[in-house]
Amino acid sequence: MSEAAINLPGGRVRVYSYNTVVVGSGAAGLNAADCLYRFGQTDIALVTEDMNAGTSRNTGSDKQTYYKLTLSGGSPDSVREMAQTLFDGQCVDGDIALCEAALSTQSFFRLVELGVPFPQNRYGEYVGYKTDHDPRQRATSIGPYTSRKMTECLEQAVRAKDIPIFDHMQVIKILTEGEQFFGLLCLDLTAPGDPDRRFVAFNCKNVIYATGGPAAIYADRSYPESQYGATGIALEAGVMGKNLTEWQYGLASISPRWNVSGTYMQVLPRFISTDPDGSNEREFLQDFFPDEVDLLSKIFLKGYEWPFDVRKVAGGSSIIDLLVHRETSSGRRVFLDFRYNPGKVKSIRFDLLADAAREYLEKAGACFGTPIERLWHMNRPAVEFYRERGVDLFKEPLEIALCAQHNNGGLAINCWWETNVKGFFAVGEVSGSHGVYRPGGSALNSGQVGSLRAARYIAARRTGKPMPLEAFMQRARPHMTRLLQQAEELLGAEEDNIGTLWRQATVRMSYYGAAIRNIDNIERIMEESKSELAGFWQLARISKPERLSLAFRLYDVLLCQYIYLSAMKDYVERGGKSRGSALYTDMSGKKPHSLLPDMFTFQLDDGALGSQVQEVLYRDGACHFSWRPVRPIPEEEGFFENVWRSYRENQNIDD
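-> structure tokens emitted (655 positions)
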């Protein structure tokens, strides 16, 4: 590491030089730093906006899942079979699927060694259960805070190695030349008012980008408030995007933000909606489910089938997601009420429920009482989570909405998690390692495997120092100068409009670019985002330097929105129909219920595009799309002597 500074008109920029900078302090970023050091690459630093922020540290569910190869019981499983499960999710590259399967056990046991208490039986087997889109019992959990415990254990490992951590640094510009990465520009969040300390540059040969998904583009999201993402500036820097249309949406509470999956639904709560002021309460699901037993069974299944899935709308549990969205988009508020049983009956005839619901509740000893009594009996931590955050489910209902939860697409990567920009690696949710469907919990495994792969490649093939400081300053100077100018353009306004612009942009994205998509609306708001983006530095105004952070984040949000909406438009023009967690309005299709508005008329995708990957490059303010076949699962030679020989020669790390 070396430290220097460059003086420019309007301010001074500190410059730090490293071989590799890891951006992000979630589970993927921390693992990347830990692995780099263990593999011998110690000229590294970790840059983060806040060590205690982000999705890994602050999110979960009733039983947050980690997905890996089966490690218990007599059911057969294999690396190839797990890879096939991931590959079958559509639009998934086979080499990435194979890596995630092959290294799932190594990554899992590393977490165990670091202290993550995954449960095992008396004989040492790590027991599992089935999660969504999972044919085996590969899932495991330590409860609501699986990813939080992962980050805590990984942070302890990183700090034990004295790896430099630059906390409260927001990356606002990625420096590239052609398809070569060479550095980062950051806003120092501790000194936004000091022109001589406001901006920091990192001269580095490599970056492992672990900034999480672009959560901030939506108003309705289950991501924690501390998660923003920074995908837009990566796309602006020339990094290719992949499968950007593919998201996961599901029901979540608004305050606090938390998925209401699993037990929250399996205890059969009441769904109610009200006017904005809380008046005029009604159980709106009753209008669509005249058969009360059918309604209860669908609510139960919503726990197992939490993500919105267009395949499960007609006759399935995902109709509930649409009904919730219908209420909220009409201006009403929706709540889960655990104090009373749904419908008109005071007690439930559990013996009449669908087999899955009845058998589960019987085994849990929960065929009694009210939803809150059943939840307290089956999962007290699920109740205590909300109580600790000011919501007592014994006394009040819980407000919910259909929310963005995970971006299955992201930045395009190869099997070493390197992007098309040399030296730029993307790991965790920011990388596009998933496709249309994915097993629950596979994202946590992907983040660990991807960061391990990136670190191993850097330590073997991208060692050495970054470019000489003088060369870096010469290349970075125009970017730094423009950055200082942009800050001055933003500052000095009497009225601050960032909050208004932010709300306007994110609300329209949740209405028109989330789970329910209409091509006319998509085109309209896409142009609005493009217009605001083009005139951003004249349009946006802040009244104090502390708001610089939000202004640069809003720029990233608008970048993301324009490119993601463009991807949705391109998908429809390619002939794409409703799939995964996205319903595209199509009047030539069918409406799942006569009482629903026409916007819910759709056609299921026939899978024709499931073997294709949509990619996008953003250049000069325009999106350039291309489609390619998925890379197949590699058929590697398994003869031991040959693999061993090449491993001795180069550890089988190639380009």
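The longest helix spans residues 548-573.
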